[in-house]
From TrEMBL:
Name of the protein in its database record: D-2-hydroxyglutarate dehydrogenase
Record key words, sorted: FAD, Flavoprotein, Metal-binding, Oxidoreductase, Zinc
Requisite cofactors: FAD
Domain of life: Bacteria
EC number per UniProt: 1.1.99.39
A biological process from GO: respiratory electron transport chain
Phylogenetic placement of the source organism: Bacteria, Pseudomonadati, Pseudomonadota, Gammaproteobacteria, Pseudomonadales
MF (Gene Ontology): (R)-2-hydroxyglutarate dehydrogenase activity; FAD binding; metal ion binding
Catalyzed chemical reaction(s): (R)-2-hydroxyglutarate + A = 2-oxoglutarate + AH2
Amino acid sequence: MTDTAVLAELMTLVAPAKVLTDPASLQAYGTDWTRHYPPAPSAVVLPRTLEQVQAIVRWANRHQVALVPSGGRTGLSGAAVAAHGEVVVAFDLMNQIIGFDAVDRSVVCQPGVITRQLQAFAEENGLYYPVDFASSGSSQVGGNIGTNAGGIKVIRYGMTRNWVAGLKVVTGTGELLELNKGLVKNATGYDLRQLFIGAEGTLGFVVEATLRLERAPRNLTAMVLGTPDFDSIMPVLHAFQGQLDLTAFEFFSDKGLAHILARGDVPAPFETPCPFYALLEFEALNDEVAEQALATFERCVEQGWVLDGVMSQSETQLRNLWKLREYLSETISHFTPYKNDISVTVAKVPAFLREIDAVVSQHYPDFEVVWYGHIGDGNLHLNILKPAHLDKAAFFARCATVNQWVFEIVERYQGSISAEHGVGMIKRDYLHYSRSPAEIACMKAIKAVFDPNGILNPGKIFAPDHQ
Ligand code: S2G
Ligand code: ZN
C-alpha cells in the first residue's frame, strides 16, 4: 500500500478532493465487470488535465508506485482491476469532446467521454461513430482504445483501431507523445499509435483521441433467421454476403434466446423453435435491396439452412430484434458466467465450432452452455452458466480445467484466446496459446521502452517479472 506521505504529495498534484481513499471508492474504482479479483487499490486519483496525468506518472516513477488506468470499468479481462495496492488513475473528469471538424469528419475526445456520448455527438452532426457493443452506455473512449474494442459492427466497420486518427498518450516516463495528429496518410516510420491501441494501458495512458466518423447508415434493416444447426449458419452468412453489404452478422443459441424471452420485455422473433439464430443487418437503400434480402432468405429456406425468419419493418422492430442479441451479456450475468471470447478466421468457424462444442459438452455435461457472438467476423462468445448449487470459486476452478482443451483447439486453428475482451489478468496465463515466445519477448521489450520502471498497469497481459 502507498504510504500517507507519498499520497500527500499526490494530493498536491491534483485538487485534494480528487484523491479518494474511502473504502467505497476503492471498491468501486478498483474493479471491472469480471468480479474475479477482490479490488485493493491504495487510492484513486481523478486528473482533469493531461498535464496532471503527466505529473501523476512522474510522481509514480519517483516513488515506484504502480498505476492502473480506469475508464468505464466494463472490461472483461481484469485489465482495469487494481488488486495489489496500486493507485487507480480514473479519467471520469476528462470527459469532454474538445474538437470537431466536419470537413475531416473527425472528433477530438478526452479519454473519459462515454462511448454512447460520442455516438450521439456524431449523430447530432449527421455522422456516425460505428463501433458499438453492449456496454457502450458506460464504457469510455479511453478504455475502448486501450482494449481495441470490437462489438457488433466489426464485419463492416472494423475495430476501434480503424477509427483512431490521432492519439495523445502519456508514457510510463511521463512523456507526452502526439501520434499521427489526425492524418489520413503519414508514411514517416513506425506508426506508434497502433502500439498503444489494445495495449490495456501498459505502455501509456490515452489522454486525448482524434477519432474518424463515418457517413450515417440509411434505413438499417435487420433479419433474424432460425437455423437447424451450427453448420447452417455459415452458408447463410455466405449467401447473404454474396448479395448484400452486411453491417452485422451475429448469432445466438436457443438457450440464449430462452434467457432473453424469460425477461418478459422482449418479443419472440417468430414462433418456430430453432436450435440457433442468426441476426444480420444491412442498409435497405432501396426496394431492390430489400427484395434481394427476401429472395436470399427464400433460397436459404429452400436449401434447408433456415427454418423460419423475420425482417424488421420499422425502427421499433429493428430495435426489438437487436435486443435479442444485445441483452444477452447483461441477462446471463446473473448466472455468474465463465466466459470465453475466442476467434478464428471465418472460413474455419464451422469445423472449429464443432470441435469446441464437442469438448465443452464432454467436459461440462451438467453445466448450461450459452453460445453467442460476432460469428460474421469469426468471434464466438462461449458462456458457461454457474449452477445455483456451486459456489463461484469451485465453479470457476472447474471451468478453468477445461481451458487447456479449448485453447489447444484455438491454437491448432491459429485462433485467438481473446478476440476482443483483451488479456488483462484473466487470460494472462494462456497467452502462449496465441502468441509465440518471440512475440512475447518483443512485447516485453516494447514495454521496457515506454515504461522502463514497470509502473503502468503491471501484471496485465503478462505476469510482472518479479511475480
Ligand atoms: C458481447 C459482451 C461481453 C460478454 O455481447 O458481444 O462482447 O461476453 C460481449 O458477455
Ligand atoms: Zn462481443
